[in-house]
Amino acid sequence: MSLPLSIAFCLATGAVAGAFNGLMVAYLGIPSIVATLGTLGLYRGIMLVLTGGRWIEDLPQGLKALAANLGFGFSILTIVVLALVALAWIVLRKTRFGRISTRSAITARPPTISVYQLSWCSFPLSSQRASAPPSPASSSPPRSASSQIRPATASN
Known about the structure:
The protein contains six helices and no strands. The protein is an all-alpha fold. The longest helix has 24 residues, at 3-26.
């Protein structure tokens, strides 16, 4: 699978997962934190089934190149993320949708925009952004405590 297609698939998967979370919060009334933590277990279980509990370490060179340092600690992904942050700022500050979506749910009730639809739309968008590849200064793996935990396999 090509790198652009893989990235598009990853972003689409994140959007679908967020849409599912948003559906539970906006239309079923499940608290956001409960829906998020509940589906976290579901998504991790799906991941373990699909990968068989194995680490995916032999990444394509094209993917590793996205994290290469261009100088001053910036990578291509850093530049993309900064551009997306600028675009999000413009949308949230300069458009009708942005001004309405940043208000509280009580004031976001004009007849043309449903609070449920607005709430539901925010979950796929945030999940899609979260599923985008990280922008490290180098291609080394993260060093957080949670990244050191390896899933259990039959050989453990």
